[in-house]
Amino acid sequence: MRILFFLFVLVPLLELYVLIEVGSGIGGLATIAICLMTAAAGGFIIRWQGVQTLIDMRRSVQTAQQHQLAEHGIHGMLLVLAGVLLFVPGFITDTVGFLLLIPAFRRFMMQRKLIAYTNKNQRSSRYQEVIDVEVIKKD
């Protein structure tokens, strides 16, 4: 619930504040032009990296490297997220979107999430007991 509040209330307010501050410093037209240029540049970069991700995915399928398919899929999803963030007007979302366009940053985010997921599963599995039973039917 807090994440939704953050996404739908605080992020737009922060974006408006930054846009107003930048606009008062460099002018409204320049601010709008920068927002449009970042969206266009991000669109071109996303298209190029998306094609590269699809090519890598195809190569993984052809060479039977099935373990890399999930990684390429996650890269693709993060590229979609980067595209959405770049098309939303604002400097904060553009910054996060451009960060997601960097393959090393995407790998870092994936590893961080994987480590958190693994730690969470290990903690929850510590408290589970396995009881081995054998069922014998009497006729």
Give the quaternary arrangement of the chains. single chain
Average pLDDT: 81
Tally of individual domains: 1
Estimated helix fraction:
over 70%
Task: Give the H and E element order.
Answer: HHHHH
Task: Please describe the topology of this protein.
Elements: H1 2-26, H2 28-62, H3 67-87, H4 91-100, H5 103-126
Helix pairs in contact: 1-2, 2-3, 2-4, 3-4, 3-5
Can you tell me about this structure?
- With 139 residues, the protein is mostly helical.
- It has one domain (2-121).
- It has helices spanning 2-26, 28-62, 67-87, 91-100, 103-126.
- Helix 2 packs parallel to helix 4 (91-100) and helix 3 (67-87) packs antiparallel against helix 4 (91-100).
- The termini are far apart.
- 15% of the residues are buried.
- The mean pLDDT is 81.
